[in-house]
Amino acid sequence: MEAHLSKQQERSAVRKSLKYSIKDGVAFAATTGFGDNYINPFAVALGASAFQIGLLSAASQFFPSLAQLKVADLAERFGSRKKVIVRFVFIHAIMLLPMAMIPYLPEYMRVYALIGFCTLYVSFASFAGPAWGSLMANLVPERKRGAFFSMRGRLISLVTVASSFLAGYLLQFFKKHALFGFTVIFLIAMISRYISWYFLCRMYEPPLEVKREHYFSTGEFLRRLNAGNFGRFVIFHSCFSFAVFIASPFFPVFMLRDLGFSYITYTIVTTSVPLASILAVSYWGRRADALGNRQIIWICSLVISVLPAMWLISRQVYFLIIIQILAGMFWAGFNLCSSNFIYDSVIPEKRTRCIAYFNIFNGFSICAGNLLGGFLATHIPPLFGYRLITLFAVSSLLRILASTLLLKRVKEIRKMDVNMA
């Protein structure tokens, strides 16, 4: 917790912290571009089966979700959200080192080593996530959240695109020694995460007193899940995530294994998503500030629901780029407004705990989707010669059901200015 500051000193500290947050986001975007975006392609390069890739994605959600049970307690025990953030981000960065060394293990160990190290990597990041969300919601005024997070998201997307292209180029450059190429990009990702950690260390944490009456257990949250508006949003988002992650881990598999894309072609297709989000996120930020977050979530979720089914129409690179551009545009709105909806829905004293509980349910749903997708990927009847195409169609149908049946039970939290709308 920071020492008591005057109002003027606090305003100055907040402004500096928001600038540090942008720099942290840019550095973390490079970690995403060089590291996170290439975990599934790394699994493919190691010879992982569809089931193993489903297991990789499932384990990377299940154990971090369990960890969320203690996140809020840690923040209260440390007496500081910032302490939780910087300590676990530091360890998060370390985990990229053993992942980079996997190519030098015996061949029979590599895939399961990746599953283990990747699970730890995501778990340590998950400890920092709720505390970071709670801290940022305190630093950014409610009326400016759409504008600030869309601007920050635009820069993050730009750096993610640039770093992903560079990572794809490096993998193509080391094509004859592809596994060494993965070592290089994961080490770059680790350095980027430590740069991110440096800026997080310099941020200011506003005082926040969490009293006993602000505590509620997971069981209490579960019992009230269907009663409150935030609980109904958790149900919708978790079901939507389940539908999304039935298919999500298998798009890289389909492109690299079934369609035979080179790393450069794969990179061009996948980076269309963050590139499109750069153009769209500021628009969604303005519209959310005017119309409310729920309305934007509804529009974006409907479009996102249709996109996997579009892979049935054509597998030509140019058509897939169009699909990815649409995905980038509408996922930008969905993710931005989902985060802001959570920030708006709970008071600051309960925010870390609510974000953690949201992550638990969402993570378990993603895990279940991954496991079901891994099973269906090898058992479902093929469409147009591909089982994964059938899987994409199933994901699309379930997304539509979640968007149309569950989101209508969620109400807008933010009081809208009629003149703005």
TrEMBL record:
Read off the SUPFAM superfamilies from this record: MFS general substrate transporter
InterPro entries given for it?
A: MFS, MFS_dom, MFS_trans_sf, Sugar_transport-like
What PROSITE patterns does this protein map onto?
MFS
Taxonomic source organism: Candidatus Brocadia carolinensis
Checking Gene3D superfamilies in the record gives: MFS general substrate transporter like domains (1.20.1250.20)
Q: Name one Pfam family in it.
A: MFS_1
| Entry's transmembrane regions | 42-63, 84-105, 111-135, 155-174, 180-201, 233-251, 263-284, 296-313, 319-343, 355-378, 384-407
Q: Under which name does UniProt file this protein?
A: Major facilitator superfamily (MFS) profile domain-containing protein
Start and end residues of each Major facilitator superfamily (MFS) profile domain: 227-421
Please, which domain of life does this record's source organism belong to? Bacteria
- Keywords for this entry? Membrane, Transmembrane, Transmembrane helix
Task: Give this protein's Gene Ontology molecular function annotations.
Answer: transmembrane transporter activity
